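Per reviewer request, we include the raw input and output of the structure prediction for the construct analysed in the revised manuscript.
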Amino acid sequence: MLWIDSAQVRQIAMTRTWDEMRLAEELRDAFDSCPAMPVLRDFVAQAIEQVLAMTQRRADLLKSPEAALGPRISQLRDQVDRYGRFADKQELARLEVQLQAERPEFERVVERLLHERRVIERLISGENKLKAWTKFGAAPGIEGLMAVYQRRHEWTALDCSDMIRLYAAVTESKFDKDDPDNKYLRRSGFVGAADAALQDGARVGGVDVWAKPNRAREPSNKPLPAGVHVNMPAHVAAARGVAIARAESQGVAHAGIAGSLLADTSTIRSMDATFALPAGADISGTTADSVFFMKEVEDFYSHVPDSLGAHLGGLATVMQLLPLATMVSQGHHTLLESAIVLTMDSVDTGPAANAYNTAHAYSIGFYDTLLPYAIGTAEDPLVERIAGILDRWSALARNKHVVCFPDASGNWVGGLCDRESEFAELRRFARADLDLLMFFREYQGRSPNAAELGYFMSMRGCHTLAGLFHEHRA
């Protein structure tokens, strides 16, 4: 192992960030050019159809009591005026009572349908930063979504990712929102209990991971709330600058990373400092939404005849990388913030809900481990191309596997792996699962020192690394 100083740590962080942005761009291009892209478009579009169909359930499609009973009531009134028959008077009185009884229920149904539409309109309009609106010249809202949908055959990987985010925004109920409309669509039956549980389940770890103080980002254009602190190590700040600059060079006007600051309590921020990564926008809820979306839509349409719906089949697992490819390349999240969502529910045997297990879980900096289960699709052109991209960038990263910590003077230094045995142990230590997240969660407001890192290395069976880091305790 080579021990490097703060200047070298900074350089590795910047270079690693550049590499990860380029890797994501290549993944995005692989999705755009793959033979399966038309299927992906149709797969995403059919879910947007469901949202649009919900908004078109109009009150004028219902038959009002006046429309149902009015003609007969008018006829009876005329007959009573002309002939005064007792039987006509009895039927007229009965129908008028029925009309008065049915009108309140009809009005309640009308108001429910109108309210559902208002809620959906508001949720769609709230996603006003999606690039698809500008690309297709549409205003955020129901009518704008209809315009975007009508041009679905032009959708790219970025557009599909935007539409997945939009769908999830309509269906989700957030941990930290008290707004009653946030849960309204679930109560209305638009999203069933099973769907809601699946969407919540995609956010592994629950509120302990996804809510403050552990997920703690603040807008960069506003004063920090009282008691919130942002102290970004120099190498993390420099890497963040590289990510923003690269996104801007790709035509991204408002990178999510640029609009966010990670508070000191952020778990991901502590990991960024240790692994020489850029500060981003914290753990990615959009990636969790995409996991939910892929499973929800695939489960439904896999039971529908091919002529009536599109499903991904064996490609459903590799499609989990879509949010990583699109968001990281656009500077909305870092690679770690997306990848850890995919792999932190890893189980020992078989693919977990997110299509990874401990043998297929991302290890930070070992990009070949990003490839999920792709059973029966190893020779698919998309899988082959993605595997090649990940293998190549993983090979290029061999001189950047560093673990950083503050020394006794507060300067960030690091241990740079340079031996095969160290690479093997680091791959195990850096496995991005829930255990790794929980370890770093213990260091709110700071990052672990060399001795603390050594302790966790020992816990993961990385005894050679642990010994080296114990020797460099601060």
